[in-house]
Design a protein that fits this description.
The structure holds two protein chains of two kinds. Chain A has ten helices and eleven strands. Chain A is of the alpha/beta class. Chain A is elongated, with a radius of gyration of 20 Å. Chain B has two domains: 185 residues, Rossmann fold (3-Layer(aba) Sandwich); 121 residues, Heat Shock Protein 90, CATH 3.30.565.10. In chain B, the strands form two sheets. In chain B, strands 1, 2, 3, 4, 5, 6, 7, 8 and 9 form a nine-stranded mixed β-sheet that branches. In chain B, a hairpin with a 2-residue loop joins strand 8 and strand 9. In chain B, helix 5 runs parallel beside helix 6. The longest helix of chain B is centred in the last third of the chain and has 18 residues. The chains are: A alpha/beta, B alpha/beta. At the A-B interface, helix 9 and helix 10 of A face helix 8, helix 9 and helix 10 of B.
């Protein structure tokens, strides 16, 4: 099924190629799975499925039942169905930097084998188990928009099963994708999304003590992001508390020397905090919305 | 009742900390007493801070003539509208000038005619806490008191100042009291509102509580310019309940004729009366920002520690 000419596919916008897919039953799961795999095989892309709780045999059986020649694709090396535990979670800890490196290697390997691109599905339900580094998943989801999808011919859907991941977690993690697919996701208290058109992140909603984990993930993404110039767009925040601002400003100050993080301000509480603590604005470039 | 003690100026001091109350009845007594203290400080090479209510600022500027350029002037009616934030300002000034001169001289007038009884009580607490915050530090803080103030307020000045008097005659106050005792005496029961909106909250309700507080304040007539102050202060108070006050609390909100009040009750304690009276490092991971932020943003903050927990009232004026 690999075309004779393996010219890379034209890349669509990164925002469309990295999606969250939220579902709550097997029928929805199968519909998303089959559409995604069929599209990839038809276009000559390599397709990889990283299962968590789903038996890989069930994945193959579902594809076959939908009329997809999954067995042949598997034999030709165009389809791989494995588990997260046997692949990217084999290390001691889930590490966003290591994962970003793995994606670059995987895309290169797929191209080297004559595939026109790489598409992947990851079941993300391991994030609620006692997996070392699972608390860094949001940081990872935020960073890969720029560090992976903006740079590589990769299409990936992150599967979030509502039966396995609590709603509050799904809402935040799904919100970290520019493009959403599947059942509707309510707006979380604090939503953070990669900026679609430039490196950086958009915060929307209300940040306080209750959202400190989300803020910590954004701070980690700020520290770790490889882009030389980053923007933190706060123009859609209704509220931000001092601890959240301190965490984000601290992360901005810890970035390598270079252009300061651009802080796009919006809410009056943020401006008031910067009046009280001007030193928190010293490591960023404050710009109006 | 009193015994003679040191001169009003900053020079020649044996004790590192000098905290007199100056009682005045006329403008002349005011400019004479405060002016002598400020001139003494200037002669010693200090650049003093003068934080007094606006009308008195003009009076002193005129009286001090050319020397006024050497002085940091602050309108206490604005900067010290909430007495709970004055001490932070004084300590910040003292910290900033510690390198420039061995001794710091400050004039601070936290109580003036027109202060409400609740404000005067918190200003008295502030006066007592000055003695804890500056104990052993090389500083002189002169506090002028208008003799037109109510008698109970003037009586407290004798308890909060180690020395008291009038120009040229400072005497040790025999009524000077332990600052902790003064603070305890300031912890009078808070009046119950006629009616209030009640919002119980836990960690999972913090965002909803913030939103509700913001909506209620807007509907109650708080001007848009003050709403960030209200929201930030309520957010810090409710977060403190979750972090330090047993994981949950109750927010009550009501309107009086001139102000909005937010009260937060929880199971917390306040062990250190100086909590929130010094500007924190906002980047410190140890916290300690909350109470200071509330003092900075509100027009009055009342905190009552009782056996059943902590009560914190935030007041914001409607004008």
């Amino acid at each position: 099924m690999v075309p004779e000419t393996a010219a890379p596919l034209p890349r669509g916008p990164a925002a469309h190629r990295h999606r969250d897919v939220v579902f709550s039953d097997d029928r929805e799961w199968a519909r998303h799975l089959c559409a995604f795999v069929r599209g990839g095989l038809d276009q000559g892309e390599q397709v990889q499925y990283f299962a968590d709780t789903t038996d890989p045999e069930k994945v193959l059986r579902t594809l076959v039942d939908a009329g997809i020649d999954a067995v042949a694709a598997q034999s030709a090396g165009q389809l791989h169905v494995s588990t997260a535990a046997r692949t990217y979670l084999t290390g001691a800890v889930f590490d966003p930097d290591a994962m970003i490196g793995l994606w670059h290697e995987a895309v290169e390997a797929a191209a080297g084998r004559g595939h026109r691109g790489l598409r992947a599905i990851g079941e993300m339900s391991w994030c609620v188990r006692d997996v070392a580094g699972a608390d860094r998943l949001l940081e990872y989801e935020l960073r890969i928009h720029d560090e992976v999808f903006d740079r590589l011919p990769l299409t990936a859907w992150c599967f979030y099963d509502r039966r396995l991941v609590p709603d509050a977690r799904v809402n935040v993690l799904a919100g970290a994708h520019v493009t959403h697919q599947g059942s509707p996701v309510p707006e979380p208290v604090l939503r953070v999304t990669p900026l679609a058109d430039r490196p950086g992140f958009l915060l929307a909603g209300s940040a306080g003590h209750d959202t400190r984990d989300v803020v910590a993930a954004v701070a980690a993404a700020l520290r770790g992001a490889g882009a030389p110039r980053l923007e933190l767009d706060m123009s859609r925040l209704r509220h931000l508390d001092a601890a959240s601002l301190a965490a984000l400003a601290g992360a901005a100050a810890q970035r390598p020397p270079g252009a300061p993080v651009r802080l796009r301000v919006g809410p009056a509480p943020l401006r008031r905090l910067l009046e009280l603590f001007p030193e928190l604005g010293s490591a960023v470039e404050v710009v109006e919305r | 009742m009193t015994a003679p003690t040191r001169p009003p100026g900053g020079s020649g001091s044996r004790d590192p900390f000098f905290h007199p109350a100056l009682f005045y009845g006329t403008d002349e007594e005011y400019t004479g007493g405060v002016g002598a203290f400020v001139r003494g400080a200037l002669e010693d090479g200090h650049r003093p801070l003068v934080a007094v209510p606006g009308r008195r600022l003009a009076l002193l500027r005129d009286a001090l003539g050319d020397a006024r350029e050497e002085i940091t002037w602050v309108d206490m009616a604005r900067a010290g509208r909430n007495p709970g934030r004055i001490l932070s300002m004084l300590q910040e000034f003292a910290d900033r000038h510690r390198a420039a001169s061995a001794r710091v001289s400050i004039v601070g007038e936290p109580i003036w005619v027109g202060r409400t009884p609740a404000e005067a009580r918190e200003a008295t607490r502030h006066e007592a806490l000055i003695n804890l915050a500056f104990a052993g530090r090389p500083a002189g803080i002169l506090c002028p008191y208008d003799t037109a103030l109510p008698g109970d307020v003037l009586a407290q000045a004798y308890r909060t100042h180690p020395v008291v008097g009038a120009p040229g005659a400072y005497l040790a106050s025999s009524r000077y009291a332990d600052p902790h005792d003064v603070c305890r005496d300031c912890d009078v029961p808070l009046p119950e509102p006629a009616e209030a909106v009640v919002v119980p909250f836990g960690e999972g309700d913090l965002a909803r509580t913030r939103d509700e507080a913001e909506r209620w304040a807007a509907a109650a007539g708080l001007p848009p310019a003050r709403r960030p102050d209200w929201l930030l202060a309520v957010s810090e108070a409710t977060s403190n309940s979750v972090r330090h006050g047993g994981g949950r609390g109750t927010l009550r909100m009501w309107r009086t004729g001139r102000e909005l009040v937010a009260e937060v009750r929880d199971r917390g304690v306040l062990a250190d009366p100086l909590t929130g009276r010094r500007r924190p490092d906002p980047r410190a991971t140890t916290g300690g920002r909350g109470v200071w932020i509330m003092h900075e943003l509100c027009d009055l903050v009342e905190i009552r520690a009782a056996a059943e927990g902590l009560v914190l009232r935030l007041h914001l004026g409607l004008e």
